[in-house]
Amino acid sequence: MREISVVIPVYNQAYPLSLTLYGFTRQPPPFDRCRIIVVDDGSSEPIEAVVEAYRDRLNIAYVRLPRKGRAAARNEGVRRLGEGIVVFCDADRIPRPGFLQAHYEAHSGAETRMAVGHVRELYVSEPERNRELVLERIRAETHGRVPQFCRLVYGLFDADGDTAAAAAWVSTLSGNLSVPLELFRRLEGFDEHFHEWGFEHMEFGYRAHRQGCRFRYATGAVNVHLAHPRSGTPYEALIRQSHAYFYKKHPQPVIRQFLGFMLGHTSLRQLEQTALACEGSGRAASVPDGFVRITNF
């Protein structure tokens, strides 16, 4: 059996992290003993205490960094790993039973690929005051909708979880993603110039796509986003800032058009057509003709 490990970057999400770690205790053997590395990206909340509370129930390690951003935190977690497969799970994404097994099985073939998991959202008013209600819904596995952006990009994949889409890299959502460690290192990980919320995961996926990596949708790898309000810089400003660096690094027509897609001005079908033109290919893929305006993912 190939080794499968988990990296969880976290910044000031102690309560969601406690629920996410609880989800990992519910994985069936042998996946309940997979190595988990929690990388604390300079939090002021007691992240280490949360990790310690699970020390006897999980094969878990804690690493603390000065504030560097999500890309650096994920890369640091991978540095602590050997060979096999790494699963990236955000601190506010509670895995359902079977989450790790589904990611593991997505890499069972000889082909090197990234596996994109399935995200759902759980809405509970004031979840920290309603912990028992949150736990009840987690155990019942009755959760709300699939986020709009996720629902759209899942349409790139067929019923078997495969895709031939030239823009499949837009599905690279690192809150629920698995990658062979050999591929991750060959790509030199996430670009740490992405400091704030942004597109470090999609830029990573774009580089993988350009090297011929295939993508797979692991429908059974479900984690549940504990929905929360966002404060600070508006999303559109972060999108524009992150995209500016993405496009500077990869000045291709499809990356230029990617900004319009993320702002809801360009459909996924239009983005796919531009991606195909960039590749000089006449092949066609079945792509949903949806628009999406991003508020969270």
Order of strands, widest sheet: 3-2-1-4-7-6-8-5
How many helix segments?
11
**Overall geometry:** globular
| CATH-level-2 architecture | Alpha-Beta Complex
Which runs of at least 5 residues are low in confidence (pLDDT < 50)? none
CATH superfamily: Spore Coat Polysaccharide Biosynthesis Protein SpsA, Chain A
CATH class category label:
Alpha Beta
Described by strand count, sense and barrel closure, the largest sheet is: 8 strands, mixed
Relative strand content: 15-25%
Helical content stands at 25-40%
- Backbone CA Rg: 18 Å
Number of separate domains: 1
Mean pLDDT: 90
Decide which structural class fits the backbone: alpha/beta
Give helix and strand order, one letter per element, not per position. Answer: EHEHEHEEHEHHEHHEHHH
GO molecular function, one term: transferase activity
Keywords: Transferase
Organism: Paenibacillus tyrfis
InterPro entries: Galactosyl_T_C (IPR027791), Glyco_trans_2-like (IPR001173), Glycosyltransf_2 (IPR050834), Nucleotide-diphossugar_trans (IPR029044)
What is this structure's SSE topology?
Blueprint: E1 4-10, H1 14-25, E2 35-41, H2 47-53, E3 59-65, H3 70-79, E4 85-89, E5 93-95, H4 99-105, E6 113-122, H5 131-140, H6 148-154, E7 176-180, H7 181-186, H8 200-210, E8 214-226, H9 235-249, H10 253-262, H11 268-279
Helix pairs in contact: 9-10, 10-11
